[in-house]
């Protein structure tokens, strides 16, 4: 009997790291993106426009589990995400595949200073948060009605190898390695949860292997929320390079976050001006999966950025 086929939609940091994890676990893996060039050794790579129902249906043909890790630019989310949901729900309904959805904390809205658990009410105040809440309700309704088998996996801000577009990403680590100026959002002394990309991958893979876990929201393994200051202090200890920190206390363009991005992100900036503490204890208890210690995850991230920056600095072959 052949190993289960897991189809990973999207080859960004989450999708690629998940595909690696699934291959390590002995699964057959197919990655899907627009180019078909995002594959890994041992995985099948397919090009598909997932907005096209026929193309999406072909892309997931034969899948036991489909992982929705497609990333959509902020300015396109409200328009594109609902259409993508309909296509994917119809496709998995037709094929019988289980659907694992990579989700965000946006449906909760402001935390009001309370830890976020799977039982926290959905009080989204942003357009993108309300849209995500509507999609999540539709996913769970499809599961309850027996039209599809769906599970939602939520994470806080990503960090780790390959993670560039994050509040703990390309605005932090290159500066920390070069002695430049790193960006911090909102407040240095508010606790703020960060989820290691390796834990995202392990959590998504585990959910895909656990049919009984479907029909609900899970918080992926995430360490107890440190303050941003403590996180940046650890980064400095790991790089051994003194660097400055620029605190952006309101959503203004800065460095890699241009005016267009910040205009779209402004409605979500509350995440950095109040405590954002994500509680993943339900997942940890149920599956016996502990999050990667913060120092360990940061060390892996520093090592990846060091290699990434060195590779970028190399002249092209033949020059």
UniProtKB/TrEMBL annotation:
Gene3D superfamilies: NAD(P)-binding Rossmann-like Domain. It holds the Pfam family Epimerase. Residues 10-214 form the NAD-dependent epimerase/dehydratase domain. SUPFAM superfamilies: NAD(P)-binding Rossmann-fold domains (SSF51735). InterPro entries: Epimerase_deHydtase (IPR001509), NAD(P)-bd_dom_sf (IPR036291), NAD(P)-dependent_oxidoreduct (IPR051783). PANTHER family: NAD(P)-BINDING DOMAIN-CONTAINING PROTEIN-RELATED, PROTEIN YEEZ. This is NAD-dependent epimerase/dehydratase family protein. It comes from Kitasatospora paranensis. The lineage of its organism: Bacteria, Bacillati, Actinomycetota, Actinomycetes, Kitasatosporales.
